Amino acid sequence: MSRELHTFPGGLQMPTYKALSDQEMSILQPIPERLFLPLQQHIGIASEPTVKIGDKVLKGQIIARANGYVSVPMHASTSGKIVDIGDYPVPHPSELKAPCIVIEADGEDRLFDIKPTHEYHSVDPKLLQELIKECGIIGLGGAGFPAHVKLNEGVENSVDTLIINGVECEPYITCDDRLIQEKANYIVAGTRMIRHAVQAKHCVIAVEDDMPAAYAELEKLIDDDIELLKIPTRYPAGGEKQLIQVLTGMEVPSGGLPIHVGVVIHNVATAAAVYRAVTRGEPVISRYVTVTGMVDKPRNLQVLLGTRVKDCIEACNFDVDENCQMILGGPMMGMHVSNPHVPVIKTTNCILVQENTPRPPEMPCIRCGYCADVCPVKLLPQQLYWHAKTDNMEASQQYHIFDCIECGCCSYVCPSNIPLVQYYRYSKSKIAAEERRRDGADHAHVRFLKRNSRLGKKLENKKQEQQVLGNTDSTENKQDYIAAALERTRLKREESKTQSRKPSTNDKDA
């Protein structure tokens, strides 16, 4: 029986521009001379280097270990030499520099000794989860959340439905579409492996109805154990909570996670990465990247992590200059960057090159309500805007600002050209900074109280000791002590007088 599809509030119908890049096979991007690998490529704690300058490494070798539970290791994208570990430009809207490991490629692309896991069905889900962590797999749809954490949720909780997300709803991006068409067997097999890892009762792979070629490739491999569904093309149908609502009819509660409604969701690229990790022992060292927009030959590239954005754009016969702007990701949720030397990282799914046109001036809000109509989370964007603009952090939280998925629908329809999402991001970062400051102050206050308590106890113990000593010394003993001291003083004086009366040797001789 076919699964009933539901809908979600708000959203947009918009031009997709996907035909620009999804008509041709992807191509392998050549190995660059140097690869720049940021230690922070995922949500959570940055990886910690395990190599030093001068070390020689092999392709797939761990060069930075996970530094906590919500962290993953990082691997060398190719064989070569570690030439530096330092701060370099990374994907960030403020042109931030961050710690990177720089590999000078030797051109040999020699592979590290990796080991596959045979017969994954018989492997303990916990061991499969650990393997996925060691291979550095994160959410490759753009979020970057470590995959093993979600898998662990499945081990610790009852999972009703595993959803593999092939819904590429944002305009221009086609890397998942192309991956499905070229590696459908990886995705289907990886889906079964993830299902075993979370012990899910049901399993669904979902794609949009404007991806017929991808659907056809998956359909050839699907059996009764997996449902393959097309969902209507509407932005942001690929959002985690929106897709869950479409496929199950359930809403993830405010501040909640998919596991709270019995669902675990992963991207199709993540499923393909799991397949490579389990069957071959391959870590995440490359990914499909859509290069599109103004470039002469838009298409998808298979890119080694650490490759510069500039190299990818030049592979599509285009030179970046001041007349264009670069967006890492799509036009709705992507990150604007000005430095073409930033590297491709695990979460880089698209490089969009557009004409550098000035943004229309921001005008006062006219209270039209369009933003509320298109919000897929049923928030009140206008109220959030006022509170964010006035730094009213408490009110922003009361209006559930952290439920905002930053999809950009509100900014897209705003007739006053207000960059609403930028206000929300600013407010979120300020609230987070204030909470960190408060947590630090609370921690310092607790330490202060504990110190005072320790000092108080020491002082009290000292007083008790003095009181005990005071009680044992009677008045008579004190008087005897004084009398003895006076007697010692008297004897010293008499001795001194006696010494002064004795005749000297000279007196005797006289």
Concise account of the structure shown:
This protein has 2 domains: 18-315, NADH-ubiquinone oxidoreductase 51kDa subunit (Rossmann fold, 3-Layer(aba) Sandwich); 360-472, Orthogonal Bundle (Fumarate Reductase Iron-sulfur Protein, Chain B, domain 2), CATH 1.10.1060.
What does this structure look like?
The chain contains 14 helices and 17 strands. Residues 504-510 have low confidence and may be disordered. 42% of the residues are buried. It is of the alpha/beta class and 510 residues long. β13 and β14 form a beta hairpin. The strands form 4 sheets. It has a 6-stranded mixed sheet with strand order 1-14-13-17-15-16, sandwiched between helices. The radius of gyration is 34 Å and the shape is elongated. It folds into 2 domains: 18-315, 3-Layer(aba) Sandwich (Rossmann fold); 360-472, Fumarate Reductase Iron-sulfur Protein, Chain B, domain 2, CATH 1.10.1060. The protein has helices spanning 125-134, 147-156, 175-198, 212-219, 240-248, 268-280, 309-315, 370-374, 381-389, 393-398, 409-413, 420-472, 475-501, 505-509; strands at 27-28, 34-38, 48-49, 56-57, 62-65, 74-75, 80-89, 97-105, 161-166, 202-208, 227-231, 263-267, 286-293, 299-304, 324-328, 335-337, 350-355.
